[in-house]
Amino acid sequence: MLKFPYELRIGWRYTRAGRTTRRNGFISFISGVSMLGIALGVAALIIVLSVMNGFQKEVRDRMLGVVSHVEVYAQGGQALPDVNLTLSQARAHPQVLGAAPFIAAQALLARGEDMKGVMVRGIDPNQEHQVTDVAAGAQASALAQLVPGGFGVVLGSELARSLGVRAGDRVTLVSPSGQVTPAGVVPRLKQMTVVGTFDSGHYEYDSALAMVHVEDAARIFRLEGPSGVRIKLRDLHQARQVADQLSRSLTGDLLIRDWTRQNRTWFAAVQVEKRMMFIILTLIVAVAAFNLVSTLVMTVTDKRADIAILRTLGASPASIMGIFVVQGAMVGVIGTLAGLLLGLGVAFNIDVIVPALEQALGASFLPKDIYLISRMPSDPQQADILPIAVIALVMAFVATLYPSWRASRVNPAEALRYE
After folding, report:
1. How far apart (Å, rounded) are the C-alpha atoms in residues 30 and 292?
2. 65 three-class SS
3. C-alpha span between 366 and 370 (Å, rounded)
4. Each residue's pLDDT tens digit, 35-94
5. CA–CA dist 178, 221 (Å, integer)
6. Cα–Cα distance for residue pair 297/394, rounded to 1 Å
7. For 363-390, how does the pLDDT look when each residue is reduced to its tens digit (9 = 90+)?
8. Among 94, 244, 263, 313, which has the highest number of CB atoms less than 10 A from its own CB?
9. Short-list 336, 366, 338, 98, CA closest to 233
């Protein structure tokens, strides 16, 4: 029969001791509150961080539906010296799924008296599906209508709405690279036909991006060919490493930028916010864990006679200390496990729980007319869950040290004097 150390058995007995007296009942209540506080703190941490991860993943996926993983530019915004060579060298990398040429430039788009600043992207409709989800999805039919010499344009849905245009309408593209005259630089104007719209779900691009055929863009902006190559990778998280490798393998004086550098400010802000939420919610776990101090101090006071008897029977101070460390640690372990189960249960089923709450309360937490994301996403990650569990357990263990040390210092003769 497997025998556990008596310190473990006695500590576990104290943890599950019933409410035999009013004092024991109060101690049990405080212990239960500490356990519940740890569980709720751990669950809150898991749920909040999972939702933040979900929002980050949702925004990132929508953004990468329009933005490529890696972009290669020519110096000074000029045309690439040999676009076919750059494409072939990029596609030779084992992490590259596809590559497509493009032209990027700033311009103004006018419709009557309305004028908007836009990012113009010249694309090859036959290759664009290799690098973006927009071109590979249901909206590919609009991009397919971009033909060389047709001077068609596909607008983001919000941009088209703000200009009040739809398919078939005419707009004027104003290029800053105009003609030099005695009166100064005169911008180039070009009438464009709206052939369709796209909706990426990312407001920044839906409100400011206009796509034209790469050959039309070259004529408008007076370039000899594509000014860059956009690349899609097998693993988007390897973008920075692949960009560094391509910078050494591609021929020519080229600029290479990955999606993490393009959106560095946004990702840095998300990480700071996530870190601050982690710190704030960890304080909840800390408060609950250090409630164990008061619980164990009262337990030690209540069990002074028991401690004295154990000492007279030969128990060492270290064994007495171990008994109360076990008692406090058990509260921390049970609370942490309960919090993990509750937090993971909510995080993995938040897509069911939130709609049920909205229906029960008759409210919408994320109205579609206000927020771009109308559902509550969740993405529990092991890199968040493990530190949460470890921190909760460590805090509970640290909280037991002082009361346990006090218990080990009890003098048997003094404790038994009035018994």
Report:
1. 8
2. coil
3. 7
4. 888 888 889 889 988 888 888 887 777 777 777 888 888 877 787 888 888 889 888 888
5. 8
6. 19
7. 776 666 555 566 778 888 888 889 888 8
8. 263
9. 98
